[in-house]
Amino acid sequence: MSKIRTGLAILLGLTAMSSAFAATAAKPKITMPAARAIALKSWPGKIAKQELENEGGGLRYSFDLTRGKLKREVGVDAMTGAVVENKDDTGQPAD
After folding, report:
1. d(Cα 23, Cα 78) in Å, to the nearest integer?
2. What's the CATH code, domain 26-88?
3. Model-level pTM?
4. Which of 84, 81, 42, 82 is nearest to 65 (CA)?
5. From the CA atom positions of the chain, what is the Rg in Å?
6. What letter would DSSP give residue 80?
7. If both were cysteines, with which of 33, 61, 64, 85 could 75 make a disulfide (CB 3.0 to 4.6 Å apart)?
8. What angle do CA 42, 48, 53 make, to 5 degrees?
């Protein structure tokens, strides 16, 4: 019975910790539409894929852009709006 109580206490503690973390997790200061505009300004094209991701301990928007046969990945910091990645993906396999 003691093992069950200990297991239950650990489970409840982990649940409380994850809820507290979710409540205090950083939220982007830059909106997806604003980040999209920043990405397209840095490399005009069509957006093939977009997502908000937690990379390297920080939030960023990632955009896969196309222009004809050219492909590019542009990353925008979700807190500052700075372009943090702008690399040629031409020739890379699709995700």
Report:
1. 18
2. 3.10.450.40
3. 0.71
4. 42
5. 20
6. T
7. 85
8. 75
